[in-house]
Amino acid sequence: MIPAPEDKDVTAEILIFGDVTATDFPSWISRHSHKLGLHTVTTTYQNDCLKVQATGPDEMLTALAVGCSLGPATVLIDRVVFTVVP
Predict the structure, then answer these.
(1) For residue 24, which of 14, 15, 32 has the smallest C-alpha distance?
(2) Among 4, 23, 47, 69, which residue's CB has the most CB atoms within a 10 Å radius?
(3) Runs of H (alpha helix) within the chain
(4) What does the radius of gyration of the chain's CA atoms come to, in whole angstroms?
């Protein structure tokens, strides 16, 4: 059976800006990613942000970006940039 186009997995990059250096934030992202059924999730600290790359259904990637914008109590998010990777 060929999946419908909306069932295709995509890869997205989520850049999270703000006070995001809390040590528990990457594991928080990982837990929520897996709850949403996402896979191949990586987090990398860059100069001024935390970069998250994940693969899964587009709507679940969007849900992760929204969740990251709220974050745990240990971080303070200024903005989130969501980009689908071609």
Answers:
(1) 32
(2) 69
(3) 25-35, 58-70
(4) 13
- The vertex-67 CA angle with 63 and 70, nearest 5°, equals 150
pLDDT in tens, 2-53: 555 556 899 999 999 999 999 999 999 999 999 999 999 999 999 999 999 9
- What domain range includes position 14? 5-85
pLDDT in tens, 62-79: 999 999 999 999 999 999
Predicted structure pTM score? 0.88
Q: How far is CA 86 from the centre of its chain?
A: 16
73 residue type, one letter = A
Domain containing residue 19: CATH number:
3.30.70.100
